[in-house]
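Q: I have three molecules that I believe assemble together. Could you output structure tokens for the complex as a whole instead of separate predictions?
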Amino acid sequence: MKFGIQINEGPYTHEASTTALNFVSAAIEAGHEIFRVFFYHDGVNNGTRYTTPPQDDRNLVNAWSELAEKYNIDLVVCVAAAQRRGIIDKGEQERNGKDGNNIAPGFRISGLGQLIEAGIQSDRLVVFGD
Amino acid sequence: MSETKKFLFVNRKAPYGTIYAWESLEVILISAAFEQDVSLVFIDDGVFQIAKGQDTTELGIKNFSPTYNALGDYDVNKIYIEKESLDARGLTVDDLLKLTYEDEDDDWAEKDSIHVVSSAELVDIMDQQDVVLSF
Amino acid sequence: MPMLHTVNKSPFERGALESCIRLAIKGSSVLLIEDGVYGASRGTAASNMVENAMKDLDFYVLGSDLKARGVDENRLIDGITVIDYSGFVKLAVENDKVQAWL
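A: Yes, here they are, computed for all three components at once.
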């Protein structure tokens, strides 16, 4: 079965991203396909590689990046939500004249249409948030 | 993409205190471009999103309530409000924005997009959906 | 059509569980996750509401979230099923759609 996932919260204030990561891992283990993970609202904060948690804490951003690489999962950060919160890739950096970018490996920035498409293409859309 | 699904947007949060209402409206507007069968429900504090008379000038936050008026032009005209949520907040339909659309199948007659429904009716409406997005 | 509802809010702070119970169609499944797991204990201000709802709805609770919060399984309302993440996935597959009561 094909799953679409929406994550509305960042990695460290709420449990949403942790729950989603565990759900996605279990879904893959059960042989299901993850069509896309869409990060919205403060969920876009899951996509910055500048995240540097203390040694004894898990690094959720890396966990998503590693999962994406291992299983070829499409991690999409909403562009409108990302611009508000300062999550940018090279393209957005150049377009907006910023002095750097911070998108984490495995993530890409795209429009809200990607969420609707995930709803259309997936057998189930599961939302994690606050 | 030819497949049409029934999308339900569930709005349960008040505006301005958090950004969910505004960013949810952005998704709803985008969804219209995908020619899906879109419905909106406003329950719990979500009914405050479409209250009349919102004025954010003293906050400096954008007042996005006029944007709901545009939904009819995007063919988003199935807007359900739970009566029990209105009652619990001392509101009636007269306290809400008047949202309308022009019905192309009825000589472009102007019709109400807002339907106040009971919890029992809403149970069935929610049951008929394919995809439920919550914010 | 059967539907899976996830509730991640403590019923003592917010109305998500109450709204879910009010609007879930008979035969649906309700999965308590994150802070929602506090709604699974018996002898609380919320347990009557949950016990009544269990006539029409199947209740599940995510074991990892219970354990994290030190809620012992023997405190749970009888009839609530403890599941793990693979059980969560299974419920999402078995039901036609999933609604999160955020």
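A: One point stands out. Residues 6-134 of chain B form a domain with the Hypothetical Protein Ychn; Chain: A, fold (CATH 3.40.1260.10).
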